[in-house]
Amino acid sequence: MADFIEWPRLLAPAECRPNPVPFTRGGRTLGGVNPSVRTDLGFWSIELKNIPVHSREQRQTWQAIRRYLGGKAGVIAVPAWSRDTAPYVSGEYEPPGETTHDDDTLFDDGTPYTQGAISVVTDGVTPLSATSIRLRIIQADTNLVGVRFSYAHALYETGPVISIDGDIWEVTISPSVRALIPAGSDLEFDFPTCLCNLEDDRGMDGGLDTTGFESRSVTFVEAVDYWSNVDA
Question: Is residue 143 assigned to a domain?
Fold first, then answer.
């Protein structure tokens, strides 16, 4: 998988609104009935609202990202904040901790590794286009219904539980799996992300607010085309 830049925390929004956009099939019949049939398709829409761009560094960063994306064609990993539903053991937000590597070493500059508060791995291989997944709880609340996680910047949301066997939960997920997830993969529950494009070519327009306290908002949509090309 290619490396993508991630939306920086320097431009953290006041509101982050990740929402799935379902895709249904159907049409009105001659009798006036309009049945809708749910499909496994769909995509994410993520709104980052009221982003402070008060400092020079924030404005420069905004413009650098705008140049990098070049409109809707560019791809970036966007945060999908989910602290309100994340399965923290305590039931409340838990910040990531710092730790050493398995052999007690640090990074080359002497700084420790950051480790999320939630640890959940896949149980078995999850194939492309799957609509369910088996999750093994290592460190998390024992309720994995209605939570979000990502793997390789592909974002998912769990639905109703299918089965529970000890610490293994099988749950439905949406959208369908974008790319194969190997067995034993660490899933990102603390800071899930989604690979996205700008919703609009001019979605990162900006200017100068003479008050010096400007806030901006931007909307992204999932880069479904990227996953389609990966699968091809």
Answer: yes
Q: What angle do CA 170, 1, 8 make, to 5 degrees?
A: 90
More confident residue, 152 or 40: 152
Alpha-carbon gap, residue 136 to 165, rounded angstroms: 10
Q: Are residues 13 and 47 in the same domain?
A: yes
Q: How far apart are alpha carbons 203 and 33 in whole angstroms? A: 38
* Host H or E run for residue 38: strand 36-52
The burial class, CB within 10 Å (0-12 / 13-18 / 19+), for 198 is buried
Number of Cβ atoms within 10 Å of the Cβ of 119 = 16
* CA-based torsion, 204, 5, 158, 26: positive or negative: positive
- Note the pTM of the prediction, 2 decimals: 0.86
Say how far apart CA 10 and CA 58 lie, in whole Å. Answer: 7
Distance CA 46, CA 219 (A): 6
Which CATH number does the domain housing residue 126 bear? 2.40.30
Cis status of the peptide bond prior to 52, with omega within 30 of 0: no
What's the whole-number mean pLDDT along residues 18-38? Answer: 61
Task: For residue 159, tell me if it sits in a domain.
Answer: yes
State yes or no: pLDDT of 220 exceeds 50: yes
Residue 64 lies in a domain: yes
Which stretches within the chain are classed as H helix? Answer: 56-69, 224-231
Per-position b or e across 55-76, b if 16+ CB within 10 A of its CB: eeebbebbeebbeebeebebbb
